[in-house]
What does this fold into?
Amino acid sequence: MPWLEQVQAGEWQGQLHYHRDAAKAGWTGALQVHDAQLAVPGLADPLQLASARAQINGARVDLDRVQA
It folds into this structure.
């Protein structure tokens, strides 16, 4: 699961769906994360999030409503 591999701590809730057909396969979903710690390439220390909303569409993850 892309992106969640980078979450080192915290809680998440929401829905994830895996789609697979002849043309395409991948994850979609909407999650709310709380007290999360994420490893971000290029940053020395993990990113600390009090809360955020994640929209997942394949390899793309959009975060909004971020509170650090």
